[in-house]
Amino acid sequence: MATLLEVKGLTTQFFTQDGVVHAVNGISYKLNEGETLAIVGESGCGKSVGVMSLIKLIPQPPGKIVAGEVWFDGKNLLEMSDDEIRQIRGNRIAMIFQDPMTSLNPVLTIGRQITEALQLHMGMDGEQSRARAVELLELVGISGAQSRLDNYPHQFSGGMRQRVMIAMGLSCNPQLLIADEPTTALDVTIQAQIVDLVKELKNRIGMAIIWITHDLGVVAGLAERVIVMYAGQIVEEAEVHDLYDNPHHPYTLGLLRSIPRLDLGNNEKLIPIDGLPPDLVDLPKGCPFAARCEFRIERCIAENPPAEYVTSSHRVACWRWEHVIAVQSQAGS
């Protein structure tokens, strides 16, 4: 399977009055054509900043991409001019944002917002773009699409607004769709509908997806691979079933322990992760998770481990990953 996207050493910082915020710290990964990759982690770990940096959506200032390369179809996106990257955004790489109410323009009709990209990137005239907009709304399950083109965002429910955002993202048949926590503001029933819709559309269109979330429960039935981020770094990456069955990093293990599981009965207690994430203005010298980690040793405090492959498809940034596995094996036996 061919590589569609390759990120190398991406580093993004924000220069504020309080100091330099180290939001993304040298992350590297690949995405294959037609693959779904999930990026997970708690709020503030750098998930959204990392993907927004790919297509240069970081506000500059105060933000700045200080290092790295983002290769897409043989070209480094970070070296492109503003005009060149605009030809990629919304066309070959599309993005669905977290809150559709603030992402959609409240004073423009839904039809106007969908047809804009079609006219800009696909060269369609008004009649062609409206016909395509109707097709897109029907594709994402909005009934009476023709009559709803002239509605405004406030006339749609939260789930319907998110479907409109998905329709906008798919309008130019992108090779890559980036979904930044698209189900966070929705109730669980609508969340499931949106996830099923994206899976169906992916299979139909064949696009690759980067799905950003803090909810590991959503990831299991959606992604093929998972990247776990913490304090702006990738701490673990694996195929989805391998990550759930055999987590190597203490932080991943902590995330999985904090998910309610129906198969364990009512007596099984959730285990929270003690402590708080580090201050991104003043990152520790060693592993950023060390202060919260039950497996830490002196080396963890003094030296930050690199993310290295321990199998052909599983990499982890932890000095104690073998001990983490051993403890899980003892607990399961």
Write the layout of secondary structure elements.
Layout: E1 3-16, E2 19-32, E3 36-40, H1 47-54, E4 63-72, E5 75-76, H2 82-88, E6 93-96, H3 100-103, H4 110-121, H5 126-139, H6 145-148, H7 158-170, E7 176-180, H8 188-205, E8 208-213, H9 216-219, E9 225-230, E10 233-239, H10 240-245, H11 250-257, H12 298-302, E11 308-309, E12 315-316, H13 321-332
Parallel strand pairs: 3-8, 3-9, 6-7, 7-8
Antiparallel strand pairs: 1-2, 1-4, 4-5, 9-10, 10-12, 11-12
Helix pairs in contact: 4-5, 5-7, 7-8
Task: List the defining traits of the structure above.
12 strands; eight-stranded mixed beta sheet; alpha/beta; 333 residues; four-stranded antiparallel beta sheet; 35% helix
Describe it:
The protein is of the alpha/beta class and 333 residues long. Helix content is 35%, strand content 23%. The chain is built from 13 helices and twelve strands. The strands form two sheets. The protein has an eight-stranded mixed β-sheet with strand order 6-7-8-3-9-10-12-11, sandwiched between helices. The two termini are 38 Å apart.
Brief overview:
This protein is of the alpha/beta class and 333 residues long. The chain is built from 13 helices and 12 strands.
Taken from the alpha-carbon principal axes, the silhouette is globular
Low-confidence stretches: none
Structural class: alpha/beta
Overall radius of gyration: 21 Å
User: Roughly how much helix do the residues carry, as a percent range?
Assistant: 25-40%
Main β-sheet description: 8 strands, mixed
Q: Give the end-to-end Cα distance, rounded to a whole number of Å.
A: 38 Å
Q: Average pLDDT, to the nearest integer?
A: 87
Within the largest sheet, what's the order of strands? 6-7-8-3-9-10-12-11
Order of helices and strands: EEEHEEHEHHHHHEHEHEEHHHEEH
DSSP helical segment count = 13
Give the oligomeric state.
single chain
> Approximately how much beta-strand content do the residues carry?
15-25%
Total strands: 12
